[in-house]
């Protein structure tokens, strides 16, 4: 049966029942009539009549078509279940949306390159590491912002390189852009760690990219920035943990002793090379097992006369010092707060302005801890040190200062051990706060802060400051007009204070049309969101590299490594086009085995 509406009934009356008579408007009426379902149904009926097709046969053919589609779908579902079962993977997840089964069923045909090209503008994220075969691998990722302001960081692969100097890395960047047909003139951001080969202001990769495209804003990885100031304090703890965990025999002996002395204490955790949030966990494991560690190391020292015993003796000597215990708790006090921010900085969707506010809050927290935290820390560590029978805090030996160095002035003499550690407390906090200030006070920060002020309606920032920097990216008059229009609309409902507020407003249901109505303003927001905050996407790819290229796969070629790594890093595997893979495999196989096999495979594929 054909379901018709009011307009369809009028069309039936005009063209079937009464007959058409408005010949002065014939072309207009015929064009509109073609759109109605009545006309389409009549066309299909006359076509079937001319072909001599029976209604019953048409229904049977439709049923067979439905059965074929259902069979294909069922085959895919069964193969997915077979894959999950063979690999020992869970069918279920934390939520229905995270089911492995559902994720595999959502394989889509989009291409990574298409994502970047459709976004037009992109940011570059690079980091390097050595794989299990001691080859240097450069991880390349791109950050894009879609029309709905959703941010994605896409991993594109590893690139083996014998050298990691700036010239070699920049050549890799140019080769990658050429390979994927990305224009360097569309690069609007870049993020690397603090190594001079990439961050150098004169000849680093960031300087070379900015020479090609001045609008490619460089940001030092903020997750690295906030972590570097405290990293030097952790070397002793890292070596101590490595000493125990590097030997299965020592680790088993320590865990046995731990079960007897402190069964409730957490296991000794390693320092993860790519995940910052685990480092505070490692320090907490040392602090909770402090007494057990000393007992274990003393046993090794007394029973082993080799280098192992000597190392154990050195560790015991350091652990028995009150200064080591005090610094451990002080660094843990700082690092726990830093790690909270680091965890947030690893989000791919994070934008610069939001990250800047996180760093500002971290700085304020550390300053407050510096001003008010010493007395509590001293009391806590002194009480615990007494329980552990550690050495009492003591005054350092007074050294005579050479007259050639200090001009004959005498060295400062502390009155009490508490004063010595108070100075140490302030020194560590000074280096932490100073490092944070140096890392995050830069021309880039000032520039992006001014851009945010312009977005939120500050009269201090003129539109010329924006368009002078971004040049032909933005039209000055349209941007100025669209900003005024947006602020007029937004201020009627809510006050916007940041780029985050603007994005939230434009993504709110009922306001989506503003992206189209105010295209220049929306484009400017996307450009600001493109600037990356951290290179954590590259760090995550290193974790995948260790899983994919393990000891048994050190002979894996670079092409296969890239293919497997991309599939592994892109967790939802949404870039696979199964149909293209299927057709491409058949085509390549048929070319090598002849036309007969090509016909046979096509018949088999049609049958499934």
From TrEMBL:
Transmembrane segments: 524-543, 564-586
HAT C-terminal dimerisation domain sequence ranges: 501-567
Pfam families assigned: Dimer_Tnp_hAT, DUF4371
A single MF term (Gene Ontology): protein dimerization activity
Keyword Transmembrane helix: yes
Keyword Membrane: yes
Keywords assigned by UniProt, alphabetized: Membrane, Transmembrane, Transmembrane helix
InterPro entries: DUF4371 (IPR025398), HATC_C_dom (IPR008906), RNaseH-like_sf (IPR012337)
Annotated ranges, domain DUF4371: 122-203
Highest taxon, organism lineage: Eukaryota
Name used for this protein in its record: Zinc finger MYM-type protein 1
């Amino acid at each position: 049966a054909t379901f018709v509406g009011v307009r369809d009934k009028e069309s039936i009356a005009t063209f079937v029942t009464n007959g058409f008579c408005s010949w002065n408007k014939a072309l207009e009426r015929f064009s509109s009539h073609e759109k109605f379902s009545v006309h389409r149904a009549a066309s299909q009926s006359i076509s079937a009549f001319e072909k001599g097709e029976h209604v019953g046969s048409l229904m049977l053919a439709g049923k067979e078509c439905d059965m074929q589609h259902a069979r294909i779908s069922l085959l895919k579902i069964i193969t997915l279940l077979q894959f999950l079962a063979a690999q020992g993977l869970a069918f279920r997840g934390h939520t229905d949306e995270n089911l492995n089964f559902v994720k595999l069923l959502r394989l889509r045909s989009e291409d990574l390159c298409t994502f970047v090209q459709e976004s037009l503008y992109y940011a570059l994220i690079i980091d390097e590491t050595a794989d299990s075969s001691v080859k240097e691998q450069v991880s390349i990722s791109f950050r894009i912002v879609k029309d709905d302001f959703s941010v994605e960081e896409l991993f594109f692969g590893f690139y083996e390189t014998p050298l990691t100097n700036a010239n070699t890395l920049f050549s890799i960047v140019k080769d990658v852009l050429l390979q994927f047909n990305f224009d360097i003139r569309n690069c609007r951001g870049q993020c690397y760690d603090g190594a001079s080969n990439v961050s150098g202001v004169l000849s680093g990769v960031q300087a070379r990219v900015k020479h090609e495209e001045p609008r490619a804003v460089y940001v030092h990885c903020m997750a690295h920035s906030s972590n570097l100031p405290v990293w030097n304090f952790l070397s002793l703890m890292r070596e101590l943990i490595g000493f125990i965990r590097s030997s299965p025999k020592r680790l088993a002996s320590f865990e046995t002793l731990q079960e007897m002395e402190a069964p409730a204490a957490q296991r000794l955790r390693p320092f993860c090379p790519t995940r910052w949030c685990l480092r505070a966990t490692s320090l907490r494991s040392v602090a909770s097992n402090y007494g057990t560690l000393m007992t274990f190391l003393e046993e090794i020292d007394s029973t082993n006369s080799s280098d192992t015993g000597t190392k154990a003796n050195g560790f015991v000597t350091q652990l028995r010092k009150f200064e080591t215990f005090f610094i451990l708790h002080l660094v843990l006090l700082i690092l726990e707060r830093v790690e909270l921010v680091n965890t947030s900085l690893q989000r791919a969707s994070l934008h610069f302005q939001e990250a800047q506010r996180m760093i500002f809050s971290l700085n304020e927290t550390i300053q407050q801890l510096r001003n008010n935290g010493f007395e509590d820390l001293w009391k806590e560590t002194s009480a615990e040190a007494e329980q552990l029978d550690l050495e009492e805090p003591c005054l350092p030996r007074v050294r005579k200062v050479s007259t050639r160095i200090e001009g004959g002035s005498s060295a400062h003499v502390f009155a009490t051990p508490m004063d010595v550690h108070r100075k140490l407390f302030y020194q560590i906090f000074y280096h932490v706060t100073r490092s944070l200030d140096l890392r995050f006070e830069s021309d880039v920060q000032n520039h992006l802060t001014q851009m945010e002020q312009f977005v939120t309606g500050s009269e201090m920032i003129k539109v010329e400051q924006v368009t002078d920097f971004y040049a032909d990216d933005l039209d000055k008059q349209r941007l100025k007009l669209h900003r005024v229009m947006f602020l007029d609309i937004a201020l009627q409902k809510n006050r916007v204070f940041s780029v985050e507020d603007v994005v939230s407003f434009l993504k709110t249901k009922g306001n989506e049309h503003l992206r189209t109505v105010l295209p220049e303003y929306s484009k400017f927001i996307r450009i600001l969101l493109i600037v990356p905050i951290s290179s954590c996407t590259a760090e995550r790819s290193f974790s995948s590299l260790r899983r994919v290229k393990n000891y048994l796969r050190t002979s894996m070629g670079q092409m296969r490594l890239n293919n497997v790594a991309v599939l592994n890093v892109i967790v939802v595997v949404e870039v696979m086009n199964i149909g293209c893979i299927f057709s491409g495999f058949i085509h390549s196989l048929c070319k090598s085995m002849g036309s007969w096999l090509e016909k046979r495979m096509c018949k088999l594929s049609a049958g499934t």
